Amino acid sequence: MYQLLPHNQKNYGLTIEASFSLTPHYLTLSFRLQNVNDYYLFETQGDAKRANELWKATCFEMFIKNPNGKAYWELNIAPNGSWNFYRFSDYKKDMQEELRVLPPKVLFIREGDEVALSFKLDFTEVLFEKNINFNLALILLDVEGERHFFTLNPKEGLADFHDFVLG
Fold it and tell me: What is the spatial distance between Cα 110 and Cα 103, in angstroms, rounded to a whole number?
């Protein structure tokens, strides 16, 4: 279990935990938020589909990189089940939708002050080595239209989750 920390902001008592499992054939990812209030927006309306620019609203994210290469992948998931999985050739270069995946299974639950999201993505071929570098992140949109950023390894300056933690 990993704890996400706020980037340049207070977390107002919010606790965010995430976990994942990666095999040659699929990725499962779970987020659990506690002490969530109505200040944050979780849009659950709309069709669950592959979509772009999910990061402009509440978005659950994971970044994955094989340790011996420059290429990496970015996964975005919205509370309504919309998602995308991108491949980059190098740091923020040549972003393309990764097509070697099947449509995912997404479950979003909000009960009281807790939120849970679980996600499973099946691969049509092996994309990752046994050991990976990764990062987990969450963007929360508030009622005033401001985004709040959380990650494993927050740094000073602008939020940039395209860096990695050793697996």
Answer: 23
Q: Are 19 and 11 in contact (CB under 8 A)?
A: no
Query: What backbone torsions phi and psi does residue 55 show, to the nearest 5 degrees?
Result: -65, -10
Picking from 118, 14, 27, the residue whose alpha carbon sits closest to that of residue 73 is: 27
Q: Is residue 166 pLDDT above 60, yes or no?
A: no
pLDDT number for residue 144: 92
Mean of the per-residue pLDDT values of the chain: 90
Instruction: Please report, as a single letter, which amino acid is at residue 9.
Output: Q
Instruction: Say yes or no to pLDDT of 84 above 60.
Output: yes
Q: Which fold has domain 2-166?
A: Immunoglobulin-like (2.60.40)
CA–CA distances in Å: residue 59 to residues 44, 126, 141, 148: 12, 26, 8, 10
Cα separation, 71 vs 57, whole angstroms: 26
Two tokens at 50?
């592959």
Q: Is the Cβ–Cβ distance between 50 and 70 less than 8 Å?
A: no
The pLDDT of residue 127 is above 60: yes
Count of other CB atoms within 10 angstroms of residue 14: 21
Q: What pLDDT sits at residue 11?
A: 66
